[in-house]
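Worked example 3 (structure in, sequence out).
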């Protein structure tokens, strides 16, 4: 018999600033989300840089009042054991946890071919063969509007991020997924893009109800 877990995700994010897609994901087959039940969810960004951590957690938490940042609740519990920290969350009536961590960061160099722009060949009296028999002046006059932009090498950084969803009541992982983000220019927008991809995948695999 399936165990029914009610999870609420009402997330509206802005347009994405990076190219983000799901690489792989897994869901607990015994957990089906049927209606609202998670009324208080902790958001945890597992990054060393405190500023990046707060930007990430604040970005997710700003989407809905049920999301609370971990730095508000766990910063003062650094000396506690994992069991004691879990009890703090239970005492604060948290139902679930969303965690996000950087798995890897890889740089890739790609060659972008050059581009050619200019006048259509038929522009010379309507016939390409019309150039023959003419001197340099006519030849140059025909091709001078044509330009070539040389190719170049472009370095792209790819970020692999793992997002996990835990049920505190059942004390278990109920969903996990890894996303790949490229052309990252803004941390906040990339977090938006990751969460959009996560929600889309969770709707697709049945972890979340359809829109």
């Amino acid at each position: 018999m399936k165990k029914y877990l009610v999870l609420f995700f009402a997330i509206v994010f802005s347009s994405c600033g990076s190219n983000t897609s799901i690489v792989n994901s897994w869901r607990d087959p015994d957990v089906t989300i049927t209606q609202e039940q998670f009324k208080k969810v902790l958001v945890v960004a597992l990054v060393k840089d405190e500023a990046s951590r707060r930007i990430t957690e604040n970005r997710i938490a700003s989407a809905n009042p049920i999301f609370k940042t971990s730095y508000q609740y766990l910063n003062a519990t650094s000396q506690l054991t994992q069991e004691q920290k879990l009890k703090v969350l239970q005492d604060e009536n948290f139902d679930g946890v969303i965690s996000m961590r950087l798995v890897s960061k890889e740089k890739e160099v790609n060659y972008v071919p050059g581009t050619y722009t200019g006048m259509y060949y038929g522009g010379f009296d309507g016939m390409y063969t019309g150039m023959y028999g003419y001197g340099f002046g006519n030849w140059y006059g025909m091709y001078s509007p044509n330009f070539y932009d040389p190719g170049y090498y472009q370095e792209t950084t790819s970020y692999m991020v793992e997002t996990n969803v835990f049920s505190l009541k059942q004390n278990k992982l109920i969903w996990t997924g890894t996303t790949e983000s490229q052309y990252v220019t803004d941390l906040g927008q990339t977090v938006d893009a990751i969460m959009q991809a996560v929600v889309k995948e969770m709707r697709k695999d049945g972890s979340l109800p359809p829109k």
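Notes: The mean pLDDT is 77. The two ends are 26 Å apart (CA to CA).
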